[in-house]
Every structure is written in structure tokens, then in C-alpha cells.
Write a structure and sequence with these properties.
Number of helices: 9
CATH topology of the largest domain: Nuclear Transport Factor 2, Chain: A
Number of domains: 2
Largest sheet: 7 strands, mixed
Distance between the termini: 40 Å
CATH class of the largest domain: Alpha Beta
Structural class: alpha+beta
Helix content: 25-40%
Number of strands: 13
């Protein structure tokens, strides 16, 4: 299910309009008794995943406590994991303090079984310290993806990946690779629009998932970019995390070949998949040895750990658009 969802304070319920936004407090929570544990549908999980981005900042602070389980495990993709609602709120408050006007746009949402995924765009102004950078009053934009696992009607586990390298670049960080030294917000580097989805009688979730897995298992693990000729629409667009967007099969081949030159033995595994309408989400992880230049840096010979989330949009069995978010900041840390 593909749709564009934007959230703003003015759309909230009248009761929430009476409240003054502020940092979340970690209220004590009691686990739902097992006998009352609700089983949510994919549609309900999609709504909860969407509500997460609405309530995490501006809504009734009791509501976010209803969405997130008391013992939730959160894999942030930056700064280590957190366990439990108190640690969860403490981490979010770091974002809230640095970017008090932070707003999210949910660009894609998909759900299947007990999993849901969102791809989002964040905008905000840095009014407080972030990652050791003093307030700059700069308005920044960055993107990311999350996969949520639901249990008993709440988020029990979450995996997040975001373009934190681009964020730091926009804030003027001096310790990032030279190729990212010039700030480029996602909206400024967007390529031409991808082809519109055309429903086909032979489209199926199973076939689309199999095709999406080929990107990971044959293109990445097999280092065979010719597979892209079979799985991509000729006008496909790839939004590659910290890297500029690329359009067309040959340009996407060249971009991926550059990754293989930097990490010749990179090997990935598929951790989760979600198929919903014309979207397939793949959460993946892996390792690779830096034996070639990467982001303008000389090879280090060190092994880096990779985690990421890819979202593919299909039309007639072909990928017409893809979004890739990975923890590039941790990769950079592994190499330095």
C-alpha cells in the first residue's frame, strides 16, 4: 500500500491542541495481561506505524506510551540500541532538544503480518547541540526508514536507518568524508520522477519479493550487475541514502559497481521482507572489507558492518523506484 501522508500540528484532535508540546516523560507502564493481548491486522499495524511519527513529538504523551511497548527494543542505527520505554524517551528527547521544531513526512508505508515499515523525511532547525556540534540555527532535511514489529497491539521492536551523514554535512561537520563536505538536502538532489505504476494481471507479492531478494543475493552477493537488466524498469530511479540519486539501469549499475570496488567481498543477508501492494521492503545486514577507496577515503583494509533498509516500488514485475537507507555513519566509524 503506497500513499503520501503528511502530518502537522493543526491536524491533531482538539484535545491535543490544548496541550503544549514538550519533551516526553517516561511514565510507568504496566504490561497488558496475556489474556487481553490483541492481535492487530496489517492495516492496523500500518495505522500504528503512521501514528508513531505523529505522536512521538506533538501528540498526547500518554498516546506514545500506548503505541510503544514498555519493554520495546529499539535499534536506532546510531548511538546503540535501547531497551524499555524510559531509554526510548531519553533518546528521542536528544533529537527534540537539538531540533525543537522537528517535523516528519511519511512518504511510504507498508505492512505485512506483524511487521510494518515507513520511509520518512525529517526537517528541523538545529537550536541545540547535536553529535558534538554547537547550535547552528540551520534548517536541515534528512531521510530514513524504520521497520516495526508489533506484538499485543504495540511496537515491540524497531529498526531504524537514516542518512545521518547528510545531516552532519548540512550542519557543517568537519570530520566527514570529502565527498560529503558540500551539504545537499534530499529534496535538492532528487532525480526525475520514476515511471507511474501500471497494474499487471500477473503481478504478485511472492514474485515481487523474489525479485527484490535478487538485488541482495545476486547483485550484491554475486557481484553481478547484469541482473539489474532483468529486474529494473529501463527508467528506474534509485535513491541511495547519502549518495546522489541515479536514474536509468546503466547509472544504477555504475553506482553499485563503485560500492563493490570499495568493498569487494561485501556479503549481505535478508533479515526481513514486507510485501504490500506495489511495495516490497527488505531489511538487510552484512559485512565487507574496505579494500578500495570509499567516499574519497583511501582503503583501510578494515571490515565494516552494514545494516540497512531498502524499499522497492514495482510495476509489472519490474522495480521502477528504490530507496536505500543504511547506517553509513557506523560504517565510517568502523573504518576509522
Amino acid at each position: 500500500m503506497f500513499r503520501l501522508l503528511r502530518f502537522a500540528v493543526l491536524t491533531f484532535l482538539a484535545s491535543s491542541l490544548l496541550m503544549i508540546p514538550g519533551p516526553m516523560t517516561a511514565a510507568a507502564q504496566e504490561a497488558t495481561p496475556e489474556a487481553e493481548c490483541p492481535v492487530t491486522t496489517p492495516e492496523e499495524n500500518e495505522e500504528l506505524a503512521t501514528m508513531y511519527w505523529e505522536e512521538v513529538w506533538w501528540g498526547d504523551q500518554g498516546k506514545i506510551a500506548e503505541i510503544v511497548a514498555p519493554d520495546e527494543v529499539h535499534h536506532w542505527g546510531i548511538g546503540g540500541d535501547t531497551t524499555g520505554f524510559e531509554e526510548f524517551t531519553e533518546r528521542w528527547n536528544l533529537f527534540f532538544t537539538a531540533f525543537p521544531d522537528l517535523e516528519f513526512t511519511v512518504d511510504q508505508v507498508a505492512a505485512e503480518g506483524d511487521l510494518a515499515a515507513t520511509h520518512w523525511t525529517a526537517t528541523g532547525t538545529q537550536r541545540g547541540e547535536w553529535q558534538g556540534i554547537a547550535p547552528t540555527n540551520r534548517e536541515v532535511t534528512w531521510q530514513g526508514s524504520n521497520v516495526f514489529r508489533f506484538a499485543c497491539g504495540q511496537i515491540a521492536e524497531s529498526w531504524g536507518e537514516a542518512d545521518h551523514l547528510s545531516l552532519l554535512s548540512q550542519l557543517g561537520a568537519s570530520d566527514i568524508p570529502a565527498l560529503l563536505a558540500t551539504p545537499v538536502a534530499p529534496a535538492a538532489q532528487a532525480a526525475t520522477s520514476a515511471p507511474a505504476a501500471t497494474p499487471c494481471a500477473d503481478d504478485s507479492a511472492e514474485a515481487n519479493v523474489a525479485t527484490a531478494r535478487r538485488w541482495t543475493e545476486e547483485v550484491y552477493n554475486g557481484k553481478d550487475v547484469t541482473v539489474l537488466d532483468e529486474i529494473l524498469d529501463p527508467s528506474a530511479i534509485h535513491h541511495g541514502a547519502a549518495f546522489p540519486d541515479v536514474a536509468g539501469v546503466e547509472a544504477i549499475k555504475e553506482a553499485l559497481a563503485g560500492t563493490f570496488a570499495s568493498f569487494p567481498d561485501i556479503t549481505l543477508i535478508v533479515d526481513d521482507t514486507i510485501a504490500d501492494g506495489d511495495l516490497v521492503v527488505v531489511r538487510w545486514s552484512g559485512t565487507g572489507t574496505n579494500d578500495g577507496p570509499w567516499l574519497g577515503m583511501e582503503p583501510t583494509g578494515k571490515t565494516a558492518n552494514f545494516t540497512g533498509i531498502n524499499i522497492y516500488r514495482f510495476s509489472c514485475g519490474k522495480i521502477v523506484e528504490s530507496w536505500s537507507e543504511m547506517d553509513a555513519l557506523s560504517v565510517l566509524s568502523d573504518l576509522t
